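Shipment paperwork, digital attachment
Item: protein structure file
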Amino acid sequence: MFSKILIANRGEIAARVIRTAKAMGIGTVAVYSDADRNGLHVGLADQAVHLGPAPAARSYLSIDALLAACRDTGAEAVHPGYGFLAESPRFAAALEQAGITFIGPPARAIEIMGDKIASKRFAAAAGVNTVPGHAGVILDGEEAVRISREIGYPVMIKAAAGGGGKGMRIARSDRDVREGFPSAASEALAAFGDGRLFIEKFITEPRHIEIQILADRYGGVIHLGERECSIQRRNQKVIEEAPSPAVDEALRARMGAEAVALARAVGYESAGTVEFITDGGGGFYFLEMNTRLQVEHTVTELVTGLDLVAEMIRIAAGEKLTIGQDDVGLDGWAIEARVYAEDPARGFLPSIGRLVRYRPPAEGVRNGLTIRNDTGVEEGGVITVHYDPLMSKLCTHGPTREAARGHMLDALDRFEVAGIESNIAFLSAVLDHPRWREGRLSTHFIDEEFAGGFAGARPGGAALDDLVAVAATADHLGRHRLVNGQGAAGSGRGRERVVLIDGAPHEVRVDGAGGRVSVWRGGKVASVETTWRPGALTFEGLVDARPFACQLRPRPGGMRIIHRGILADARVLSPREARLAAMMPPKARSDTSCRLVCPMPGTVVSLAVAEGQEVRTGEALCVVEAMKMENILRAERDATVRKILASPGDSLAVDAIIMEFE
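Attachment content:
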């Protein structure tokens, strides 16, 4: 067994590998860029080595710098995590030449299966059913248009290297291909150092199902069941689960057998994932093979009880698999929700800044339910524009899918993030959607169910009753504390209040103190018990003897309540204040139609127009890159470009003006 390993990655996956290595008694070496000098993974490791500047090409993608770090620290092996150089055959070969073990598959397997074009050819030759398409390198946008027409729209433009949704575009027309091809190529080049693209048919009602495999160097190959990864946005997974609600024992056996056969054919070793697209009619098609640990490996670990990182390390050290296919069982259900630093109200654009507050729910097992949080950030840390915006992989496990779902919703309601925006409310809204609960999923789920974006679910019925009671209670306890001091007893006299939930008034009477409050509304009374104190972001307690939790965020004159995907602005007024507030004229919004502003912090990649040029609605204006993703900004109306205020290469803040229109 190794005495010391280096983790050639950052963030949550580096922290996750370090924890397992330490549990195995193995020394660890972290690497970091300028931007990650104070990163969580740096503090967790036994040693840390500085690689270079923040851009990945000059730090985490520098093979020379990583080899030097191994030599300087005496690391015997390298775990690549995922992303960056995890699927680089050149990196694996360089380590082998230097006498350092790569904790992953052989370079040949990475080269064949890590390359999406080569893997499709190999799988087809091995008799595995593949998605129709053009499994060859495409030189330019016009060739891409010709090939797309031959395949038939819609098509998927995909990067030959890498994964994680980078360098991928769905194209439904010639214009989509012409615009998407150069952007996808640029994005892939920046993320993986390889801008090659290919095109395949886009299955219109697909589910994304993947099979986890383990293989040793002695011919032992097993699969660990499937993961459902259909909930995606911009081809990047958002919520995953194991097992899949669409896979029965027979289909699992068929898909697993093909995955194992493919791994044997390529001489695979280590952990890997064979990804399939299913069509809803029992058919499945090979999509690609990820020759690395997947982001969502956590759900497989929770249902199998295996530590995949430990298995990878043992295999790399020359040990045989300790279990056979018949030993693999799936216990219960697991769900992973990816918590991103992004703003759903602004089209899920990245959000950067300091994490003023970062308090995930407590990990552990209670009453047969599990919470696991794989994270790479901590309170006080900074989210930058340089890397992926993933902050946390929040996971739950329970005996059934519904138990795991309910536990996840409770956990999300207790997840405190402040200082930047996050997608926590959106994750709750997805998991609480009737279609998700029924298991009727596809990779189009988010586009179909949240086509207009996400501004929060609307409260109604019992949920509205709860929000009114909680808002009234929070206001009552806050006012009571100001009047009577810390922990003072209440007067017992009821107060008439008007609770405004998103502007709609609800007349109530509030009474109580010491954490026990009664809220009368419409002839009914809600009993609230809580230990909440003003200033706390998480409100926990009982509402009519039911456990209840939500986030309370201060707002001018009120609060924002975040619960089960609901984003509700609440104000609590006296009856006289409510009458006066109703007379106030609405605040006029500023007119931004005459200019294009940057919707997120990022770098201008290119401009598609010139001053004096007439543009039509929907026409591309410029491309802005943020967190390794390129975003095409389009005209919202017909106009003429009056002045351009930004140039390619400029770093822009949120709402910086890029151009003005006449």
